């Protein structure tokens, strides 16, 4: 019997997939900011598959990859401006939040942070209630509760995941305020996409390196393992 050193073949994909994700993100943000619809239409559906591929190449956990792919479903379904597509897309994002909650497990979170998120959720729902269409109030309340729970629990995976969870909440809040005809920032679509892309990326980084270690191209992705022949 002898030992042979074999590199994980997925390691060679880590850097190209990360670069492709960053390029697609830049194209999408440029498309939204410059009102170049075709750039947004092409780039947005590529974002989460590329990030999911990156996570898979980094040997990320399956719930993370599932959450990102459900995010892709939501991204794609929200491209057309249709009420039915919006509800189904919101359902796809909700499934992604369930995957994130599954990933975060049962580790304890800060009680104070939980109270803060509960106050934010309650205030936000009160703020939106008058401006939301009647048929969206209950689905939006349920989705907001699930999203807030995900953002709260993301802190169990360290500071990067915690910031990612908070940015996801902010991104969807910006969408909801637009639906409710509340005052908007200049170029609202740009801020929605910027916070969303950053959120998913930071959640991915946090899940790949729980505890907050910044390591987007991990040495572990290239670590060689010995096998017996």
Considering the chains and any ligands shown, give keywords for the structure.
two-stranded antiparallel ribbon; disordered C terminus; 229 residues; mainly alpha; 71% helix; single chain; disordered N terminus
Task: Give a verbal description of the structure.
With 229 residues, the chain is mainly α. It is built from 8 helices and 2 strands. It has a two-stranded antiparallel sheet. It starts with a strand and ends with a strand. The model is unreliable at 1-5 and 219-229 (pLDDT under 50).
Topology of helices and strands:
Elements: E1 3-7, H1 11-33, H2 37-57, H3 62-77, H4 83-104, H5 111-129, H6 134-153, H7 159-179, H8 188-208, E2 224-228
Helix pairs in contact: 1-2, 1-8, 2-3, 2-8, 3-4, 4-6, 5-6, 6-7, 7-8
Reported for the largest beta sheet, the result is: 2 strands, antiparallel
Helix segment count?
Answer: 8
Described by the principal axes of the CA atoms, the overall outline is globular
Fraction in helix: over 70%
Radius of gyration: 19 Å
Based on secondary structure, the structural category is mainly alpha
Mean pLDDT: 88
Number of strands: 2
Runs in which pLDDT lies below 50 for 5 or more consecutive residues are 1-5, 219-229
Major sheet: arrangement of strands: 1-2
């Amino acid at each position: 019997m002898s030992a042979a050193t074999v590199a994980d073949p997925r390691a060679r994909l880590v850097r190209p997939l990360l670069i492709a994700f960053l390029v697609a993100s830049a194209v999408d943000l440029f498309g939204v900011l410059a009102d170049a619809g075709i750039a947004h239409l092409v780039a947005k559906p590529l974002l989460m598959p590329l990030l999911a591929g990156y996570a898979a190449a980094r040997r990320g956990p399956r719930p993370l990859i599932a959450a990102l792919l459900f995010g892709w479903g939501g991204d794609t379904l929200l491209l057309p401006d249709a009420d039915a597509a919006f509800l189904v897309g919101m359902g796809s994002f909700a499934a992604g939040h369930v995957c994130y909650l599954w990933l975060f497990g049962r580790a304890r979170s800060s009680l104070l942070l939980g109270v803060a998120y509960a106050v934010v959720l309650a205030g936000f729902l009160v703020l939106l209630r008058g401006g939301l269409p009647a048929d969206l109030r209950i689905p939006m309340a349920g989705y907001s509760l699930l999203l807030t729970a995900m953002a709260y629990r993301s802190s169990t995976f360290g500071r990067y995941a915690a910031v990612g969870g908070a940015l996801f909440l902010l991104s969807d809040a910006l969408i909801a305020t637009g639906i409710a005809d509340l005052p908007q920032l200049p170029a609202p679509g740009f801020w929605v996409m910027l916070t969303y892309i950053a959120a998913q990326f930071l959640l991915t980084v946090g899940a790949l390196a729980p505890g907050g270690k910044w390591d987007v191209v991990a040495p572990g992705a290239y670590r060689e393992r010995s096998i017996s022949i």
